[in-house]
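Suppose a classmate hands you a notebook page containing two proteins, each written out with its sequence and a corresponding row of C-alpha cells. How would you begin to make sense of it? This section walks through that situation. The first entry is reproduced here exactly as it would appear on such a page.
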Amino acid sequence: MNEKIEEREYEIDLLELLKMLLEHVWVIISVTLLAGILALCLALFYMPVRYESYTTLYVKNANGPTTSSDETVRVALADINASKSLVSTYVVALKSNYVIDETISRLTQKYERSGKLEERAKYLEHERIEKMYSLTAVDDTEVLKITSRTTDPEVSADICNTIADIAPDFLIRVVGAGSVEVIDKAVADPEPVEPNVKKVTVLGAMLGFLAAAGVLVILYLADNSVKNTDQLTKKYDKAIIGEVYNFLQERGEKKKKLKKGEHRDTSPDNLINDSTVFTLAESYKTMRTNTVFALSPFDKKVFAVTSANAAEGKSTTTANLAIAFAQTECRVLLIDADMRKPTQHKLFEKDNKTGLSTAISKMNKLDACIRKNVREGLDLMPAGPIPPNPSELLASQQFAKIIEELSEKYDYVIIDSPPVNVVSDVLVINNSIAGAMLVTRYAATTYDAVEDALKKMELADIKMLGFILNDISKPHAGKYYSYKYKYGYKYGYGYGYGYGYGTKPAEDAKDKA
C-alpha cells in the first residue's frame, strides 16, 4: 500500500452544527430557564435593596437681566452660559470634604433628636456618605441635580436635603459667584430602584442561554468524531463503500434497555430480511454494488471488514453485507475471524462448537466447521471455541491454505475481523485477502482512531477498499437521534487466554438451550 495518509484540514459543517443545537434545544431551554430562576432568586433574596431620592437646585448668575432690549437678550444669553459653567464648578465644590463632614454633623444632630442615631449610625461615615450621593447637570442646563441612593429611603432623602441646605451659603462663600435656589425638596420614595428584578432575571436568562449554547458549540468544535462521509473522503482520499442509517430510527422504534452483558449489535433483529425497511435494505444493496466495483481489479474475491475500535457496528454490517451478496444468487461464505469475541454465531443463532479455530488447528474437517444456508445462498463459518493464540492461528500457513481452498468454492468470501486498533489479528492476514473495509460509527469513531487504523493497515500492506459509515442519525419527526452503545469489546491482558480449545461452560449451556 503505497498511498500515504495526507494531513488535511476540513471545514466546519454549519448544517451539522445547527442540527446539533436543535438536538440539544431542550438542554439550552432548561439551562436558560434555570439561569433565569437563579437570577430571580438572587435579585429577590440576596441583592441589597436600594432607594433613591433627589433634589434639584437652580444655578443663576448674580447679574441677571432686568430689561427686554436686544442688548439685554445678548447679555442674558451670556449669563445663561455663565450659569452652566457655574454648575460644573458647583459639582466639584459640593463633593468636597467640608460638605461631607458638614452633612454628617447635621444628620447626626437630627438623628440624635429623633432617637434614630443608633440604627442609622452606619450611614454616617465619611467614605460611605461620599459614595451615597452624586451631582449632575440636568440636560446641560443651569439645573443641578443631587441624587442619593441608600438602603433606607428616609436616609436618601435626608442626605439630599441636607446638602441642598448647605449649598447656598457654602457656594457663595467658596466660589464667590452666582447663587442657587432649591427647586424642590427630596422625598422618601418607598419603591426601590435596585435591584431591577426584571432586568436581572432577563440578563441571567440571556447569560444562561449564551453559556449553554457556547458550551455546546465548543464541545462540537472539540468533537473529533466522524459525522460526514465527504470529510472522510476529502481527508483520506478513500472511497465511501456505503452509509447505513440507525436501525432503531429507521424502524421507528425507541431505544430499549439492555440486559447486563447484552449488546444491541448482536441481536438477530438487526439482520436484513424481506420485511426490512426499504432504506436499510437498499443501503446494503448499494454497499454491495460499491464493493463489487472496489474488488473488480482483483482476481481474489476475498476481503475483510474491520473497524478502528470496538462497538462500531462492524459485525452487524459484515453480516448484512454478506446477506446482500447472497441475494444476488452468488455463493457467499461469511467467516467470523474475531476469535477473541465471536459474534456471527449469535447473529445467525447458530452453535459455536466448531469453526475457524478448530479448522485451523485441524480438530475438525473444513466442512464440519461451516453452517450451510444460514440464509439462502449464504454459508457461515463461526469463530469456533476461543483459542489461546488467535493471532498465531490467523498468521499460519493453514489459515492461508483454508482461505485459498474456500475461495475456489465460493464467489465471495467475507471475513469479519477484529478492530485494527485493539488487536493485530487483521494485519496478519494481508496475504490472504484482496483488501479490507473500515467501518466507522457516526458520532463515535474519531478521526484520530481512523488515522491510526489506516497507518497500521498501510504498514501491513493491506489494501484499503473504502469506508463504511454506520449508525447514521438523520432528521426524523423534527428530532435528531444519536445512540451510543455501552457494551463492547474488552480486550486486555489475559482476555480470551487460558481457555484452551474447549468452549466455556456458560456458552455450552447457552448453545444447548
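The notebook's second entry, a different protein, reads as follows.
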Amino acid sequence: MDTIKNHYRTCNLCEAMCGLEIKHTKTDVISIKGDKNDDLSKGHICPKAVALQDLYHDKDRLKTPIKRTENGWIDISWKEAFDDVTENIKSIQTKYGKNAIGSYRGNPTVHNIGLMLFGTPFMQSIGSNQKYTATSVDQLPHHFASLMMFGHYLMFPIPDIDRTDFMLIMGGNPAVSNGSIMTAPDFSNRLKAIKKRGGEVVVVDPRFTETSKLASQHHYIKPGTDAFLLLALIHVVFEKKLETKGHLKDHLNGWDTIKSLVKAYPPEKIANIVGIDAKAITELALKFATSKTAVCYGRLGLSTQEFGGLCQWLVNVLNCITGNLDTEGGALFTKPAIDIVGMSKMTRKTGSFNKRQSRVHNLPEFTGEFPVATLADEILTPGEDQIKMMITIAGNPVISTPNGKHLESALESLEYMVAIDIYLNETTKHANIILPTTTGLETSLYDLVFHQFAIRNTAKYSEALFEKTEEQRHDWEILKELTTRLSGQENPLNLEQTLDYMLQFSTYQDPKLSVAELKKHPHGLDYGQLKPQLPERLFTADKKVELAHPLFITDLDRLNTKLLQLENESNSAYPFSLIGRRGLRSNNSWMHNSKRLVKGKERCTLLIHSKDANTLNIKDGQDVTVTSNVGQVKIPIEITDSMMQGVVSIPHGWGHHRKGTSISIAQNHAGVSLNDLTNNIQLDTLTGNADFSGTRVKIED
C-alpha cells in the first residue's frame, strides 16, 4: 500500500492564491483541503481547488504533440513537432516578413511561472510586433490609468480591505472572484469583518450579486454609465469642501483642473443617466468622504465598457481627493518579494502607449501589444504585414474575445497555426500542431503576478506534486527549445535558476531569499500589511501623481457627447443591455472540462427580471433567442429579481458546442458564448479595450 503524504501548494486556478493541503500517494490525490497555516488564505479554499485532481486525471488532456492531417489528428514526436514549427516560422517570415506572425497569450499564462518567465524571450525570438493577449478584453484600463497617473503600467492601487472603514465596490463581484486585481482569499469573511467593526460596504452593479448580498447597501446602475456616477461623486466631494490632499499635498498635479471640470456633473444632472437618485448619489459621496478611511474598487464591469479608461482613472481620483490613496485603510501599493515594479528602476521598462498603431483599424499599442479586438481583421485584411500564421499560448480567443465567429473565420484562413495548449478546443482545433504542456499538480509555482496585486506582502514557492512522464514537457521547456532554435542562442538557466536570479534583487533578504529558502516554508512567508510608499514609488518624471493627464481630459469630450446621446436615445430595435457574469466554479473558458465544476443545475442561462419576462410573455426555463447587431444565440432563461430591469446577463466563457473539439465534459455542458453577440469594433477608444458591458440585444421566444 502506498504511503499517504502531505503536499502544500498554492492553487493556481484563480487570482486568490489560496493555500492547499493535499493528501496523496505516489500517483493519486486522496483529498484537497485548505491549508490553515497558509500566511495569506488561512485555510480558505473555493470549489475550484478540488478540481485540480480532475485536471490531472483528465482523459481529454493532451500530453504529446499532435498534428492535423487530411485524415484527422495524429500523434507525433517532440522532435518532429519542434522541427515543423521552427521551419514554418522561418519560412513564413522569409516569405512575408517578420510581422506576418501573430501571437495570442491567454489568461492562464499569468497563472504559470514557466510561461511568464520564458514567454518574453520566445516572443523576442520571433520578432513580430503583432502581439495580442487577454489584457485588452479584461484589465487594460487599469494598466492605462496606472501608467498615466503613476508612471508604471503595473502600479495598481490595491484596496486595504482588512483596515478600511468604508468600501465602495463598482462593477466587481469579489465574493465570487476572491478579488480580481485584489488578491484576497476568503473575501466574503473579510467583507463581513468590515461591517463587524462598524464599517460599511456599498455595491454598485446592474445585478444584485453575491457580493451585494453581503454588503450594507446596493445600488443598481445602468450598464456603461459608471464614469458619470464617479464624476458626480467627485463633484459632491468638492462642492461640500470635503476634499483633502493628505500626505500627498506636495505631490499632486492637476488638482485644480479636476475641481473645475467636475462642476459640470452634479448628481441632479447625472441621476437619470445612471439610474440612481440624486439624493442617494450625494449621500454615497458624503459617506465615502467622511469615513475615517475609505476605498473605491472598480473591476471588470468598469473596464470592459465604452469608457473603461475614464472609469479606472476616476476611481483613482476619488480615492486620492478624499485622502485615501497610499493610505492605510485606503488604496495602497504592494511591495512583493519579486518586485516587478521596483526592478523597473533597473530595466526602465515601465510601459508604453501609442508608439505605433495597428495596421487595419489604427488602434494604439500598449506596452507592445495591440488590442485583440482587431486580431481577426489583421488576419483577414490583405496587405503588407498581414498575419499569415498564429501562435496561441494557453488561450481560447474564439470564446474569450468579441465576435468569436468572426475570429473563427479568420483562423480558418491562416497558412499555419501552432497552439501551446493542453486541449483540442474551440481555438486550437484550427492549429496545424498542438504542443501540450504539463499543468496543475505537475508543475512548480510562484505567483509572479498575483503577489503584485495581493492585500498582504507574501512569498511562496510550490514544488510539483507529481513528476511528469517521459513523454511530457513543461511549458518553460517548450518555450526554451523554440527560443533556442529561432535565436541561435541557448539559455543556460532552467526555471528555478531563473527564479533564483530574480530573488537576488528582493528587498526581503533576512534570511537571504532564494528558491531553496522558500522551499523551507511550504506555507509561505509573510512580510506584513501593505504600507504607504509615495512619492518614492512613483515613476513619473517629477515624482507627482498626474491627476489630470491630458488624455483623460480630452476623452471627457467623448463622454459628454455620449451624455447627450443618452438623454435622447431610443433603443427600440435592441431594448435590452447585456452584461456578463462570473460563477464561483468557473474562471473564463478554461475550467469546463471538470465534472466537479460543471455538475448541478444549468449555469449558462440568461438572467432576466420578472417584469421584463412578463412583458415578453416568457417563462422560467424557456429557451429564447437573443440577437445583437453581430450574432444570435439560443439560451434558456432564468427569471430573477436580482437583475435591474432592462438588463440581462449571460456568463462569460461558455459556448462549447462547436464541432471538431475534444473536450467531452465541456461539450456535454456546452452553453452559449457571450462573444457570439459582442461586437469586435465596439471599443473603449481611449485604451483599445473591448466594450462588453452593455451590448444591446433583443429577446424573442
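A careful reader of the second entry would note: Residues 574 and 697 are 5 Å apart (CA to CA).
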